[in-house]
Sequence to fold (331 residues):
Amino acid sequence: MRVGPYTLSSPVYVAPMAGVTDAPFRKIAREFGAGLACTEMISSEALVRRHRESFRLMDLSWDERPVSVQLMGGDPQVMAEAARMAGEHGADIIDINMGCPVPKVVKTSGGSSLLRDPVRACRVAEAVVRAVPVPVTVKIRLGWDFASRNYRELSTALESTGISGLAVHGRTRSQGYDPSADWEAIAEVKALVRVPVAGSGDLKSADDASRRMRETGVDAVMLGRGILGNLWLVRQTVARLTQGAQIADLDWPGRIALVRRHCELVLEYYGSERGSRMLRKFIAWGLKGFRGAPRLRTMVQSVSSAEDVDRVLDEALRTDPILLVAACVAA
Ligand SMILES: Cc1cc2nc3c(=O)[nH]c(=O)nc-3n(C[C@H](O)[C@H](O)[C@H](O)COP(=O)(O)O)c2cc1C
Fold:
């Protein structure tokens, strides 16, 4: 699997996810064999105005290479300038967001609003391709809404701007994150263009990923919500797609050990104060599916130090969910 000059170690991408795919998250995903990870979306306007948080989002110091930086915006000049800055900052690939459905983003003519304006979408892609020496990829949805699904025309038009890859999220903007993704449409894009295509939507297991690759011929799969609280799925999917191997789910102590490692990295990266606020959601996701133990959930909400993290996870480890289920059944 190649993107521009890079040969990727596996066809498993980590989907860009705002508020999720930060440096610690990407580090674990790459350790588990992901072939490519992408930063959270970065506003091109904020970046060219040199907002501090944009540089934090673009920090690649923990990343395995290659790494992709995702930019969002609808102004070709601003996007080109932001791409130049990202390139100088060490981005190996620039990805352009043409799928974000959030109203605040759509109002700026970036994200999924570009789906409604293919001419502007191509001007943005062209400007970015011209601005940087690194490969440029684009992530699209199927269209703005069902009546205006334009993924066929858009994909071929974008390809002609000189981009090096496409990722397709198999939903329209108006579908948000439900109902299920349309992988037949993703297969159509794959058949239409020559650049590598990554498919995104509803991949919850290595079986899903393997079946979708086989059925659609996509070059890579992108893991999204399936890895929230379950980064192990990266490892399982890589093993399945590269060696045909089946790796078991983590047992309960294994899950807790992974949450613990993620928390340690978050605390190391952000420091104790900011880090402990940020990792609450990662702990909650990591322990999801865990029945009972409401006390544990309350403890997660008030985590504010490394010691609190240890307390919650030690308590979780003592409360084996299988024993809990057995106790409920016995009662
Ligand atoms: C919390 C969250 C944040 C996301 N942020 C981004 C983003 O910054 N850029 C982007 O292109 N897509 C973003 N997405 C979309 C995902 O990359 C992916 O395409 C989508 O979730 C579909 O895959 P799934 O059904 O496997 O989750 C986000 C999705 C979620 C759930």
